[in-house]
Give the backbone structure.
Amino acid sequence: MKTFDIVILTDNRYLEDSETNTYKHNVFYEDFLVPEALQAENLKVTRLAWDDLNFNWSDTKAVLFRTTWDYFDRFSEFSKWLAMVSTKTRLLNSEKIIRWNIDKHYLLELKAKGIHVAKSFFIETGTQSTLTELHQQLNWQETVLKPCVSGAGRHTYRLTPHNIAEHEAIFTELIQQESMMLHRFNITLLRKAKCLLSFSMVNTVMLF
């Protein structure tokens, strides 16, 4: 008999609430709402870090991915754990969907199906071209560079003709380890985002 119906997954940084860190407090609070709702349905629930060494993953009917936000910093370890845990219990979502969603190459699949995505160029591991050469090849002036497996702004850089040379060294290092991608920078989206932020701030002031 299973000990739990669902284990909610986080990473170690967010296991405990914080009175001094607003971001951590918000993560903890939002995660807390999930077990509260599930327990209201008479489900046995707990919340654990995905890398918990003491828990037997066969003791739960399912695991729900919530805030496992160190996966991109520990991707090799996370990938092995994902393969293991998928043999022990049910994953929400499935291993196949999680792996598909983790890697930004899924944008190529969406584009092939006629879905509009941001103009992107994928740079595979081991590529010898420099950033300058790639921008000349693409005829792009301003871009955003980031890893294909990433999050929270990890190694994400806005590149312009004025600063591209400053990023050649870090790019050379990263591309030997993992695939990267370039998004063509869209100033229109930035302006719209600023307008939305301003509108949101005004509404927040009006509410109080």
Summary: The longest strand covers residues 60-67. The chain is about 40% helix and 20% strand. Residues 193-208 have pLDDT under 50 and may be disordered.
